[in-house]
Amino acid sequence: MSQMKISPETVDWECATCGRALELSKVHVAYLESRFTVELLRCPDCGLVYIPEELANGKMAEVERILEDK
Amino acid sequence: MDQKELREIENRCIQEEPAWCMAECPLHVDVRLFLKKMAEGKWDAARKVLDKTMPFPGILGRICDHPCEKKCKRGEVDAPVAISELERACVTFTASLKKVMLLPDRGKRVAVIGSGLSSLTAAWDLIRKGYGVAIFEPGSYLGGSLWNLPHDLLPKQIIGDETALLQNTGVRINLKAAITPERFEEMYADFDAVYIGQDNEIACDFGLAQTPSGRIRTDDVTRAASRKGVFAGGIPEDGSTRPSPVLNAAQGRWAATSADRYIQNVSMTAARPHEGPMKTRLYTDITGIPPLPRTPVSDPEEGYDKEAAIGEAGRCLQCECMECVKACPYLEHYKSYPKSYARQIYNNLSIVKGDRKANTLINSCSLCRLCETVCPESFSMADLCHNARQEMVRVGKMPPSAHEFALLDMAFSNSDKCALARHAPGESGSAWLFFPGCQLSGSAPGHVTQSYSYLREKLGNRVGLMLGCCGAPAHWGGDAKRADAVTAQLKAQWTKMGHPRPVLACSSCMEMFRKFLPEADPVSLWEIMAREGLPETALNARAGASAVAVIDPCTARHDTGVQESVRHILRETGFSVAELDHSREMTECCGFGGLMANANPDMAREVIRRRAGQSPLDYVAYCAVCRDHLATTGKRTAHLLDYIWPDEAGPDPAERKNPGYSLRHENRARLREKLLSELWGEKTEETDACEKIVLHISDEVRDRLEDRRILTGDIQKVLFHVQNGGAHFKNPKTGHWLAVHRPLNVTFWVEYAPSGQGFEIYNAYCHRMIIVEEGK
């Protein structure tokens, strides 16, 4: 899961509610019986977490698959 | 599945059965592997195969009477492979590389009388098993009558070299030994077992029971003589006077096995069914194999030279079965065959902790049953995989992503939005019940409407209608509970409607109805059409039309009545019908069956691509899913109903696009609305607010959504969520918005911008992993 990293400088999204730029922060993610901590971009005010497309279709999908076969 | 069931299942797959040559060889030399190595020119590797099984390959490789050749499958095409000559070439051109390994000394001793091939073999096997062995040979050299063979066939030097091996391993050799009844008694007293080789005549009465021909009587398998601890071999088979070198060697080997067991005081007969020539259940298809004449020996005295030997070995068919693997891209993909898959699946189910590596293998089978149709032993991957899936669901180890999409699709089809069960308008009972199935309703709802009015016209008005899904997706996915719930609901409706006879337009529904509601005696729409005659539209549609190839769905594999009806309808409609190589009983799945396309989309794509390439003719399918899957490849494919009601099908039915998942949903829901309004004069309930959200989606994005199994309904839910205060992102550079929402088990992300009355959708993606919110 350590490879679920993203580089913040390429991300233009900002939180629509709070109007804040996103910042890297430790986030818990879970699937089936497993739980991890990863660094993801999130709104520093409301905590909304951003998952980029490459992550969802790439590493995340891969990890989901591995966990499903556990 | 327990170990016993696994064995029974494994035993059905005959791929690992011995080739005929090996089965017939009394020693079971792996002739097929030997010939493979020879054909590859790998001489040492070929020699290794002989050394592994054959005692004294230098001798036996030259003089073997090769019973294998008469069973060689190549012989059924033209002439058997010259196995014997090839063994001779191999032992001529190679030296043994074998390292002799002796087991630790057991402190027990065996006397071996005589030194023909059977005695030499017994001595060779016993010394390696850790016994002290002493040979008593009445003559003045080892080998007996081997020395009488022509020098060209068996050079004297070889006899000397090969028998020297025995001396090197520590066998005590007594030449010019007097073999008398008294001496025999001494041996019997001094040694733990005695072997008597009868390859060469020994003038001695051992006081043992004899055959009418004066040979020592022995048990066929154990070679045990009438006295405990005495074994004999080197005896021609009943009725044969010619000595068989390979049989002599084998008898020596069997006797050595028995002597070992006798001395260790264990059963001499247990687990020995495979000794000697045996039957094999192997199947090898030889149709279409071109004849190839036997390579003549390069020199009648010297035998093959290297090049000729390689050429002759290349004639070996490398007999194997692989019938199912040849027929099925799925079985081919995992690079093995059902026996090994059964083991992998068993292991997968038995895992307590660790990776379940066979999940995808289990979930990718289309359950189409082509394997069991082509298998000489009816091995069923479908049953194997289906049982495994049920087990996985039962213990909660089915990967959620494998089938959930299809199960949700099923649930949608059976929801109030799409499902319907009515008597015909104005009727209070039904003699018949049209059940078009969810896929035809999703793919071509107009055909459902037309078929329903056709049926009422032909069968009288008492034809009820039931819209919904038969439960096949849950059944295929191994979700017995969900499947049972659907079929129970279906049965209850059918009962409530007064047990009308179902008319089905889908072969998968037919399979399900026959399984769960056989008493309803379902009949296919195609059989009704063939019997009752076609509507005018069909007869006018394609007068003088060209040839088409029929695509039989895998679920109609054994339904000859349906197959015939469909062909009859096509001919009536003006087509000439061509048969694909894989049609009727041998038909292939389109990749949807068994939920293959859900669990393994890449494999499903490969399967349908292969199917699309089987004929240049236009295809006609009578399963809506086969039709739509073929359409995704660009293959010109129409549905049979496209030619019966051409007005519903557009200008060129064979070019009709696959509607995709989202439109299928819409089509089903609209079909229900339309029928309710037009036939029963009922207005349906208001649609949900979120369904009113208007989306603008380019074809490119639509294709991407289809690939990712994201429905427009999912996108509407995300946008509705945002409209009601759901969090989202904005991108000041592009002016796009990004919303996220998890309505059920999948989180959807949608990139969009307001556009006119609705939204332009730029992208969407999804994942199953959950972001755990703070404090949870």
From TrEMBL, chain A:
Residues 12-70 form the DUF7479 domain. InterPro entries: DUF7479, DVU_1557-like. It comes from the Bacteria. This is DUF7479 domain-containing protein. It comes from Desulfonema ishimotonii.
Automatic annotation (TrEMBL), chain B:
GO terms for cellular component: plasma membrane. GO terms for molecular function: 4 iron, 4 sulfur cluster binding; metal ion binding; oxidoreductase activity. The keyword Oxidoreductase applies. InterPro entries: 4Fe4S_Fe-S-bd, 4Fe4S_Fe_S_CS, Cys_rich_dom, DPD_II, FAD/NAD-bd_sf, HdrC_iron-sulfur_subunit, Helical_ferredxn. Residues 306-339 form the 4Fe-4S ferredoxin-type domain. Keywords: 4Fe-4S, Iron, Iron-sulfur, Metal-binding, Oxidoreductase. It comes from the Bacteria. SUPFAM superfamilies: alpha-helical ferredoxin, Nucleotide-binding domain. Signal peptide: none annotated. The keyword DNA-binding does not apply. It holds the Pfam family NAD_binding_8. This is 4Fe-4S ferredoxin-type domain-containing protein.
